[in-house]
Amino acid sequence: MDDRDFFDAPEEASRIKSQIVKDYFLAWANVMINTLKKQPRSPQKIAYIDLFAGCGRYKDGSPSTPIFIVEEAIRDKSLRDMLIIIFNDKEKEHVALLSSEIKSISGIETLKYEPRILQDEVGDDLAKEFKGMKLVPTFSFIDPWGYKGLSLSLFRSITKDWGCDCVFYFNYNRINMVMSKDGGLEQGQALFGIDGCNDLARMLKSVGTPEDREHLIMDWLEKGLKEIGVKYVLTYRIKSRVADRPSHYLVFLTKDFLGYDIMKRIMDRRSSEAGEWKLNLGFDPTGQDLQYSLFGASVQMNKLGSELAQTFAGRKLSMKQIYKEHTVGTPYVKRHYKKVLSELEKSGDIVCDPPAESRQKRNGEPTFGDKTVVTFTARNESED
Q1: How many domains does the chain have?
Q2: Most buried in the list 40, 78, 267, 277, measured by CB within 10 Å?
Q3: Based on the domain organization, do 278 and 331 belong to the same domain?
């Protein structure tokens, strides 16, 4: 399927992508606004930037992400007063259509800052422009049709300041093909660096399976992003309709654990895998990821319990601290930790303060609050 065909109508993958962006934008904006209001000397502004905004609607007339963002801003008084919106698209026709759509939205005149719609090519010049700016807290969405314009320098420039997070759409299928071709690595160099791209291309020649190839490319991308100062990276896998591999990834960048936690929970809610113990953040349009078994849940609970017992042996810390120290890079969200810690408490492997009998109950089971203090049993060397 051609990339443009993928967005002709809001198929489920497109709707989920927009929903994830909107969900995170609203949660992020709430945190930023509440923080800024406590700092009256700081500029009372936040920003939303979409560098590949498109026309505002799919070809069938359904609204796309820019319309959703503007409508949400109009609904909320704080957003109406504080949000700066910048849309960009290099296509003159797209800019004209988007401008018309934005102007026709009911209540658009209530926004303090009229949305700006630019017509620029996304590349090195734009990255340098952002690099020279001191950005207000900004959430950026970068959704190219292919991959041109994506670069480490762009990601560095739009995430360098406080409160600046980013989501970009990573065309894995195209990048995978590019990295397979000798002499066709220019875009790979923008994403992985010249030396890094050459090293990655060399390593990919010896990779046996598509799964190993995918892991190597995504690990290399995450490594490069962290080298430019991004502390937390989350990926949401969108599976191909025609092959057992991804077509795209949504990639989230932040320097703050709170942002990581919020987005991880959003991606978890919007994942197609069924059951309480989802282990893949992503969407499968074929429905093959919908399978779920109680046996799998039991295995994962035991695995996480063993990891926690080993990692925190002999330590005393809160549920919130446990989650923050352990969750990064794992498929687990907070409910997994609370479930496993409750089971470890029942089996006597940990001691909690307050204990289960003193905590509130929900559906007959003791709750496990973020502030609950957990003491892990010290492990003997013979247990390792």
Answers
A1: 2
A2: 267
A3: no
Could you tell me if 259 and 343 lie in one domain?
no
Domain range for 312 is 294-383
Whether residues 221 and 130 fall in one domain: yes
| Tens-place pLDDT, residues 74-108 | 999 999 999 999 999 999 999 999 999 999 999 99
Check whether residue 234 and residue 339 sit in a common domain.
Answer: no
Residue 41 bridge partners (DSSP) = none
| Residues 6+ positions from 288 with CB-CB distance below 8 Å | 239
In this structure, the answer to whether residues 192 and 304 fall within a common structural domain is no
Residue 336 is which amino acid?
H
Find the CATH number of the domain harbouring 304: 1.10.10
Task: Assess whether 222 and 335 both reside in one domain.
Answer: no
pTM check: above 0.90? yes
CA-wise closest residue to 312 among 243, 222, 224, 375: 375
pLDDT digits over 185-232, tens only?
A: 676 888 888 888 888 988 988 887 999 999 999 999 999 999 999 999
